[in-house]
Amino acid sequence: MIGMRRIRLLLAVACLSSGPWSVNVDPVAAALLYKPLYAWGNNSLGQLGIGSAPSPLTPTHVGTKQWLMIDAGARHSLGIRADGSLWAWGDNSGGELGIGNLASQAYPVKVDTNSWVAISAGDTHSLAIRADGSLWAWGINGGGELGIGNTQNKIAPVQVGTNKWLAVSAGNGHSLGIRADGTLRSWGYNHHGQVGDGTLTHRFTPVQIGPHKWLAVSAGRNHSLGLRADGSLRAWGQNDHGQVGNGSTVDQLKPIQAGLATWNAISAGDRHSLAIRADGSLWAWGENSVGQLGDGTGIERLTPVHIGTGKWRAVSSGASHSIGIRANGTLRSWGYNFDGQLGDGTTNNRLAPVLIDSGNWRSVAAGGSYSLSVKELTISLVPLP
User: Fold this and answer.
1) pTM for this one?
2) What digits encode the pLDDT tens for the residues 321-372?
3) Which of 122, 167, 263, 329 would you call most buried, defined as having the most Cβ atoms within 10 angstroms of its Cβ?
4) CA gap 316, 371 in Å, rounded
5) CA geometry: angle at 226 spanning 224 and 228, to 5°?
6) 231 closest CA partner among 276, 196, 267, 180
């Protein structure tokens, strides 16, 4: 027979599980696992998802739902909720929210009823992969960045070819993707070689970049980063600030190796790059005028430099700021802070990573002048008297 204290505990769990907080319940540990979204920085176009509230200088809770994945573009945001549904908010002047109109949204709105597994928010276009592996794109398409064979803008998701995809990344006006077979495809504007096919020709449909297998890609403003299956880091495209990381400032039209280590994670910003090595160490290179590299200086770096001494779990490059999660789950940020995008309660630039919160953070996304992050909360339940 179940005692009254146990019955009351089960009733409390049932109420919380079915209520607006949308939490996962661990019946063995009697705990609630909740993954809320936080946002901070510039909210002029609703990109934080908190309505028309003033731009907050510290992480601010966005709604009550749980999120599996988030991404921040220049002025719009994308997210996948725990049920696999796709949501968008912020600037929609180019149709980058994919909701069938051009009305900007200050709160998250559902894009459609399908199930999604990957997203990427670019400058004014968006990419996403459905659960069936199909690739979809929407928004501005002036350089062919949607990959649909023309330059027509789209205000709702349109399918890109018929192939299956593993990963995508949307840049300023170009796009990168990894197909199910591990090969790399690229398309869109190519005036700095950011497509990586050895030319300066804009591409309106995905073109294959070499025969190699790839694990991850990241599209910056006009440069690109990729991790090959062997863990080596490759970079290409615009290199005026050393963001390619090969020791020069000459644009690169094809992927070239940056550093000789094995890497786990990459992120390309406007004109700077971040990456985490296999040993958990953080490295950065490129423009550093406002401290976006995090090395304590304002000196531009043409090759990867080690940032601090800690181990890192995740990192994200924004326009001119950076965010990272240490191996212990703590949230750090550095670089430009005019709009409070660092989240430290000030508008002071930071030349090195500063602690924002000591909680258990799971993912980060640095946008144009704002930031998003998902935190994991474990709420222990005790039997009611």
Assistant:
1) 0.91
2) 999 999 999 999 999 999 999 999 999 999 999 999 998 999 999 999 999 9
3) 122
4) 9
5) 160
6) 276
